[in-house]
Design a protein that fits this description.
The structure is a homodimer. The first copy, chain A, is of the alpha/beta class. Helix content of chain A is 37%, strand content 13%. Chain A contains 14 helices and 15 strands. The radius of gyration of chain A is 24 Å and the shape is globular. The interface between A and B is large, with 146 and 144 residues.
């Protein structure tokens, strides 16, 4: 029996029509003959479908930033097997989940093994008491309501679902530098042009430069109007927290242009400065032009547990007057099935008074780390930003390519950082150090930094 | 300070420009004045953004099927507060998770509260040992490899991510009837035309009719070629499991047309018939034209825990020769952040020999339920399908609208079923009864059915 292959592509010339017998041994032989790895290009016996590849995915450059850093870390470790590498890279939490919260998850998991404690599908939008708890804990002073809170498996995933909801016809603005997912998901959805190697940016995205000379807040008089504005405060990677005045300007700018702000507040609890709002909804009128996404990841160490939420105010409307919340609800019920109930049990403990206190304590610990890092770089004479209202310290290496700095720090200190250029063109010349780490590792990292770079200044 | 609103829409006429003071009290007053519910249409003081609504979402009809059923159930319960309603509706698992598996999750959750047991971000694609475990447990005989297995928070979510990967330019075929997510996600991505009220179907989707007269397998000689073919076996809702011969035909059909089959195997463990493959990859050549998605939901009672997987063979290629697995990996790393590590700990227990045995036992229990339901309807003289290799029994009510039958059963028996037409036009005249339930509820349901419908035949 012969299946003809479909040969409509042109990129690879030597694809061949394959005659095939009817059982598994044949398959095995072929696999042995043409061992095709995920990232390699096959040339022998390649059979293709007729599907046109989504060309938007083809526009993406290399891999997502953090897998690339992980790859370089592995290569370094292979080269130096005895090196004790410290990661100040991806920003992954290291401290145990507060006992009260872990206990709640343990209890929920145990309950699932009993008739009384078992439950199946929950509401796709999350448990009612959790939506209410999040609303009370974080939005009581700014008038949001429980039904506007959609519980999820995290902000990164919600950004993907928001983009699916908005569709391909929107134009996007991002802070430059910014968390790569805003740009990458916009590219995937077809909202952008091609990657422009000369500017190291994508065409048809509005990059809002955030650098020391503008206090890391964009000069909005120079920003072209767009449909969507992704804005993260406290910012990943720069660590800058926007002030009330700045966010009031941003909301006015969005309203003037009819834009929707997608506000990423994942680090809001790290804010100490009373002049910096913890939610965009503290700004009057934001409920008519903003969506906020947030997460327990960096508050309760839930990076692996996966629990976040997105707030879509009922007042937020498309140009045709239809409510955005109704469409987001449709997306959440169609391509999502609720966050894990074990994670939700943990979330419910997080938003109780004791849980909130435990989270504050954990946040405080990482903020102390940030302070140690920040002070170290300052003492060595570097230009240092962030680290006060955020778990990230943003260190300037003017005139030096960030991947070179990344490589130099890895080589000299066995420390993984994140190159600023990975967050956008305006991140070039900076490196991000994450404050997520055991205290002993942070202190050890500080010693290594001093030894390698202390004398240069 | 005044913000001007953006009034570009025309659907609602009375939107007003709102002058606003600068603090929260004002917001509260406005909310009280114009209490806008998520699904209602606001007319007073409505401020709109300039964003064009994604018109594809507007094409969707009403809500997703199961929330609509839940709404009707609530209305019934409100009308009859004392009625003890039994649900044979959404297909939600009811029995506790096998102890061995719940214990593994409990242990993982407790561990998160300790330094030794804590872990943060895992690989977006899932833990290596779980990918290997799934591969060994379910795909050892058909040559799949661990790196082709992407662990996720469930098949429903993976279907959304697959659609995002494929993009808007693909044309889709679905079984009719079928799980609503295939159609709805295709509509959202813009792969379809408008809803056609006269045919109760969407334009530009190829509906492959599956009814008793074709043994619930489409007549492929009448099916137009498409880019994607969604195929579910054992089928939800009809309960039909495709035979080896039928799947061989399907693979040949896909290869002839250059299509990719998205094969939903969520109920594969329910298959008793040796002549029905448990994976599409048992069919030679499927690795060049198929993706398979599966889940622990209906095997281990994980509907609330959230854990599934999708298999993308490295041999699967787009027309340009590029590997589909690389693009799916990019999607998973960009808009997903891994399944909950607690759920993954449970999954790891599932794929151990003892866990597999526990799952088989649980599946056997629900299959007994299916048999009880099936036999009951047969005894009453109904035309009954499915229920042998699937947890769903598909009951024919020729000539009667399924929503009417649904309403009649709810009214007479206080039993929730699922109307066949909710799964597509060819589901009209059928009702699906789910076998997920406590045994006592299934037996009670059977008595009620006999009382209400037994004498009619």
């Amino acid at each position: 029996m012969a299946f003809s292959s479909v040969l409509t592509g042109t990129a690879l010339g030597r694809a061949a029509v394959v005659l095939r017998e009817s059982h598994c041994e044949q398959q095995s032989r072929r696999r042995r003959q043409a061992h095709i790895c995920c990232s390699s290009v096959a040339t022998a016996e390649q059979v293709r479908t007729g599907l046109k590849r989504n060309e938007n995915i083809g526009k993406l450059q290399a891999g997502y930033l953090f897998p690339e850093i992980a790859r370089r870390r592995r290569a370094h470790q292979d080269k130096h097997p005895d090196a004790k590498v410290i990661s100040l890279g991806i920003g992954d939490t290291t401290e145990p989940i507060p006992k009260l919260i872990a206990d709640a998850m343990q209890k929920a998991a145990a309950g699932l093994g009993t008739l009384a404690g078992y439950s199946g599908y929950g509401a796709e939008q999350g448990r009612g008491e959790l939506r209410e708890g999040i609303c009370n804990a974080f939005y009581s002073s700014c008038g949001r309501k429980p039904h506007e809170i959609f519980v999820s498996d995290g902000s990164k995933c919600d950004i993907g679902r928001l983009q699916m909801m908005f569709g391909c016809e929107q134009r996007v603005a991002v802070q430059d530098p910014s968390y790569p997912v805003y740009v990458d998901s916009s590219v995937i959805m077809g909202m952008t042009g091609n990657y422009n190697a000369s500017t190291t940016s994508f065409d048809n995205i509005e990059y809002m430069v955030c650098q020391p000379d503008n206090d890391f807040f964009p000069d909005l008089s120079k920003v072209a109007p767009t449909d969507l504005i992704f804005f993260c405060s406290p910012n990943n990677p720069t660590g800058a927290a926007a002030t009330r005045q700045q966010l009031t300007e941003l909301v006015a700018f969005a309203k003037k242009n009819g834009s929707i702000i997608v506000y990423d507040a994942a680090y809001a609890l790290y804010i100490s400065d009373d002049n910096c709002p913890k939610s965009i909804f503290e700004i009057p009128g934001a409920e008519e032009c903003a969506i906020e996404t947030c997460s327990f990841s960096k508050y309760a160490g839930f990076t692996g547990v996966r629990l976040g939420w997105t707030v879509v105010p009922e007042q937020l409307r498309y140009a045709d007057g239809s409510p955005v919340i109704a469409d987001f609800n449709r997306i959440m019920t169609t391509v999502f099935n609720g966050a894990s109930i074990v994670a939700q049990a943990g979330g419910l403990a997080c938003v109780q008074p004791e849980g909130l206190a435990e989270m504050q304590q954990l946040v405080h610990f990482y903020k102390e780390n940030a302070d140690i890092l920040r002070q170290t770089f300052l003492d060595m004479g570097f230009k240092v930003y962030g680290g006060k209202n955020a778990p990230y310290v943003w260190v300037g290496f003017p005139g030096k390519p960030s991947w070179d700095v990344f490589a130099d720090i890895l080589e000299k200190c066995n420390i993984v950082t994140t190159p600023g250029s990975g967050f956008g063109p305006a991140g070039e010349g900076f490196v991000r150090a994450s404050a997520f780490g055991h205290r002993k590792d942070i202190l050890e990292a500080v010693e290594r930094f001093k030894k390698a770079y202390g004398k240069q200044r």
